[in-house]
Amino acid sequence: MSSLAGELSRIAGAAFVAEGLAEELGRVAASDRPDLAQFQCNGALAAAKAAKANPRAIAEKIAARLKAEPIFSKVEIAGPGFLNLDLTDAALDARAATLMDDKTLGAPGTGAGKTLVLDFGGPNIAKPMAVHHLRSTIIGDCLQRLYRANGWNVVSDVHLGDWGLQMGQLITEIESMGTAPIYFDPNVVGPYPEESPVSMEDLETIYPRASAACKADPARLEAARRATVDLQAGRPGYRALWRHFVKVTEVGLTREFGALGVKFDLWNGESSVDSLIPSMLEDLKARGLTEVSEGAVVVPVAQGDDKKPMPPLILVKSEGGVLYGTTDLATVIERVRDYDPDLILYVVDHRQHGHFEQVFRAAEKANLRGRAHLEHVGYGTMNGPDGKPFKTRAGGAMKLFDLIEMGKAEAEKRLAEQGIGADYSIEERAEIARKVGIATIKFADLSNHRTTDYIFDLERFSKFEGKTGPYLQYAAVRIQSMLRKAREQGAEIGAPAIHSAEERRLILQLLSLGDLMASAEEKRAPNMLCEYAFELAQNFSRFYNEHHVLSEADPALKAARLGLCALVLAVLTRVLDLLGIEVPERM
Ligand code: ARG
Questions:
Q1: In this predicted model, what pLDDT tens digit does every residue of 41-97 receive, in sequence order?
Q2: Which residue has a Cα nearest atom 5 of ligand 1?
Q3: Structural domain 165-377, CATH architecture
Q4: How far apart are CA 320 and CA 231, in angstroms?
Q5: Mutate which of 137, 155, 348, 377 for ligand 1 pocket (most atoms within 8 A of beta carbon)
Q6: Does the reported pTM lie above 0.85?
Q7: Which of helix, strand or coil describes residue 54?
């Protein structure tokens, strides 16, 4: 289904064309002043400017043509030549009825025939997922859902950090522990034990120890560097050990992503492009794109108009190891080869902006990106009440799993306070708490513009009133239970029909979902979906306070109102689903 604003733009565009003007001038959008009109068109001003003519005179001509269109109930000229437009209730009702039958609920289809590779999550092997990966996961998953809903072919990749120095640090630490000598014996080339010599819990203590040892002792750091180079060069014992790290960590990660309801199409990592690196380096060298600088192989990426110095992208370090930038560049080649995407988005902390700028410039310079537009979708930091990156009470980095548990516990407390589910089974209460806890965390994260830092305040995020996930779930659950009762009564659920200002406002908002989804896609802005959902819940509650629904005596009115409720529920549930939030059966 095409959007309502799109349909009006075509009508107004035709009016401009009939006056010998450009069709684009007819662009119609929701009004900035909903108190004055539903829609507006500012094309007469732009047309007048270009033709050095009087905007009001042009607006009069366009208005005369639009008045002949039965869809409009009001065509008015405001100020210097703005066109204010209202639709007839009949036109809105007809479109609401169409929306009810549209399974996509007006999705804009902006991605038809297009492929997006979406790089998000990005946890690192052997380290538990930290809270800074949470934002990437939540924002990335929302974009994954939104782009799919908009018709894109989305290929999501968790892109594990599995190839850097931390691997060498772990390997040397395990060597010094002496607990798994077979992996270090130069006379053994395999086979190696099936079972991992370390568990995820072991890695959680081994990695911090290894990293501290390397910080304290330059010789240890040097050994870790060498081990990294040897691992990358294919030393069998190191590769075998590394495979154990990857497997063991993946089990833990699957659990955490699963708890959040997040799925990836690809479980690739930095190491996945290992085999592409030698040919990439050769090719770049042959084309004269690389330089040797202090023993390292680099691609210069500075440009004349840079405001800040832009260091070159380092591909091979002087001791021979490859880096984060090397694997990212090779991954561009792999993705272009495998998916020929239109767009590659990297949902990564904004502090990595410089890194991506280097990689993108190198990809451009070496002509590696095919037709893909490469873009870093950065985001700010989740801070604690002290304004510093969120930590546990003990001062460590908060683990994602613990955060989810915290959200659940808080939800349980709130539900008990509200007396919700007191008579439900323990299992059902736990299931509700799980959904509410996750909604608390996700909505709080997504409702801020992604580039702003925000303070994590579980107390506030978990409230059942205000702009929170639980409030919206509760709003949806209430409509669900009302519709359940209506079905039990055998009441008819008809098509919505406008009889009041509240109903008109709701229907206008429902009909704007497609445009909203298109704008949220264009701006990569999940917070727009949060805004929309909150406003919808508020518009609904205004309607509900002013109207009888179940208790309405007139059967036609009742059927129309129930239809409106059903449509609000469908749209609200849809938007919450785009945010990765599930609505409980009941609360
Ligand atoms: N592993 C990285 C980190 O923890 C994030 C990876 C992001 N994706 C990428 N293609 N570089 O910071």
A1: 999 999 999 888 899 999 999 999 999 999 999 999 999 999 999 999 999 999 999
A2: 122
A3: 3-Layer(aba) Sandwich (3.40)
A4: 11
A5: 348
A6: yes
A7: coil
